[in-house]
Design a protein that fits this description.
This protein is an all-alpha fold. The chain has one domain. The protein is built from 3 helices and no strands. The longest helix has 23 residues.
Length: 75
């Protein structure tokens, strides 16, 4: 339970540090990418904390790379 609290606290602290600067400078795209990546890492970490078997993200990376390779005509 303490690890979940620490995880949430870390996410909140990072958001409180990063988000106001992005909003002030009107970096909306950066804010969206930052939020999506941060929340995906948070969800993955939370699932790992509650002992859910999380598949390796490397499979997703390989699938994306292979899709781009096919688009560019490379086997």
């Amino acid at each position: 339970m303490i690890y979940m609290v620490l995880l949430v606290a870390a996410l909140v602290l990072v958001f409180l540090y990063e988000v106001p600067v992005m909003v002030k400078h009107k970096h909306w795209r950066d804010l969206v990418v930052f939020s999506v990546l941060s929340l995906s890492v948070f969800i993955t970490s939370l699932l790992m904390l509650i002992k859910v078997n999380v598949p390796s993200p490397m499979r997703l990376v390989e699938a994306v790379v292979n899709a781009f390779m096919r688009l560019w005509g490379r086997p």
